[in-house]
């Protein structure tokens, strides 16, 4: 008993990966970036509104990947306010303010839509 190899072609596999690569390069990732910013703005707890208005995104593309990064620029005394709203923080008086998970629920529909549309594009 042994392993047998037959020569063959990777033509279909190569075409599939080419289609995925083209889909990545041609996709409009800005729509997801903007949708994420809007969802985060709406979901961010508001006191002054500065944190909710400080969301932005950036897109990085390479030959084989795309990444979208959402950021919040509201920093006070070296502390990103969006992060402490999400995870909680200690107070000067020794107390603790519990975080509110607002980022994950806001972004979940964006991620699900992106995954669904990407899958539809590559499975054809």
Give a written overview of the molecule.
It contains four helices and six strands. The chain is an alpha+beta fold and 124 residues long. The protein has a domain of 79 residues. A two-stranded antiparallel ribbon has the order 1-2. β3 and β4 form a beta hairpin. α2 runs antiparallel to α4. It starts with 10 loop residues before the first helix and ends with a helix. The model has no long low-confidence stretch (mean pLDDT 88).
Features:
124 residues; alpha+beta; two-stranded antiparallel sheet; two-stranded antiparallel ribbon; 4 helices; elongated
Give a topology summary.
Elements: H1 11-26, H2 29-43, E1 55-61, E2 66-72, E3 75-76, E4 79-80, H3 81-87, E5 88-90, E6 96-98, H4 103-123
Antiparallel strand pairs: 1-2, 3-4, 5-6
Helix pairs in contact: 2-4
Concise summary:
48% of the residues lie in helices and 19% in strands. It contains four helices and six strands, in the order H-H-E-E-E-E-H-E-E-H. The chain has helices at residues 11-26, 29-43, 81-87, 103-123; strands spanning 55-61, 66-72, 75-76, 79-80, 88-90, 96-98.
Average residue-wise pLDDT: 88
Instruction: Tell me the major beta sheet.
Output: 2 strands, antiparallel
Write down the secondary-structure element order: HHEEEEHEEH
Number of strand elements: 6
Separation of the first and last Cα atoms:
39 Å
Strand content: 15-25%
CA-based gyration radius: 21 Å
Going across the biggest sheet, name each strand in turn: 1-2
Number of helices: 4
